[in-house]
Amino acid sequence: MKLPKDTRRYCPYCKKHTKQTVTTAKQKSRSATHPLSRWSTSRAKKRSYRSGYGNLGRFSKPAVKDRKRKTKITKRISVLYKCVECGKMKGIKKAIRASRIEIGEKISK
Ligand SMILES: [Zn+2]
Questions:
Q1: 32: three-class secondary structure by DSSP
Q2: Is 57 domain-assigned?
Q3: pLDDT level of residue 37 (50, 70, 90 thresholds)
Q4: Is residue 23 in a domain?
Q5: How far, in Å, from the CA of 81 to the mean position of ligand 1?
Q6: Is the N end or the C end of the chain the one with fewer CB atoms within 10 Å?
Q7: Mean pLDDT of 93-109
Q8: 94 CA to middle of ligand 1, Å?
Q9: Ligand 1: centre distance to CA 83 (Å)
Q10: Pairwise CA distance, residues 97 & 78, whole Å
């Protein structure tokens, strides 16, 4: 998917249409986006399943990866618009599902 480098868009902070540059948000790791999901170490620690010191062979096991084929080949890429006048960023409500997004010359996957 191709996007222009900068567009004219409504800025809710300036309350008018301004020139805005287009960027994409950096992909976060799963532990950063879902810090208290099931089987995460931080969740287990929060629920006090773990006390004392040492690992006791419980939290260093690798995750089970029995699925070989990746079902989804596209990712949700959230696009951010930065206002040139006030410098504030605003993302769009729904992230775009695409394998890659080209902004001008820059390609983000
Ligand atoms: Zn603005």
A1: helix
A2: no
A3: confident
A4: yes
A5: 10
A6: C
A7: 79
A8: 21
A9: 5
A10: 9
Whole-number pLDDT of residue 69: 64
pLDDT of residue 17: 94
Q: How far is the CA of 105 from the centre of ligand 1 (A)?
A: 25
Count Cα neighbours of 63 within 13 Å in the Cβ-side half-sphere: 8
Asked whether residue 56 is domain-assigned, the answer is no
| Number of domains composing the chain | 1
- From ligand 1's centre to the CA of 23, what distance in Å? 15
Q: What is the share, in percent, of the chain residues with pLDDT greater than 90?
A: 21
Range of the domain at 108: 1-27+72-109
Q: Whole-prediction pTM value?
A: 0.61
Is residue 107 in some structural domain? yes
Lowest mean pLDDT among 14-18, 58-62, 79-83, 84-88: 58-62
CATH value at residue 10 = 3.10.450.80
Q: Which residues contact 81 (CB under 8 A, 6 or more apart)?
A: 7, 9, 20, 21, 22, 89, 90, 91, 92
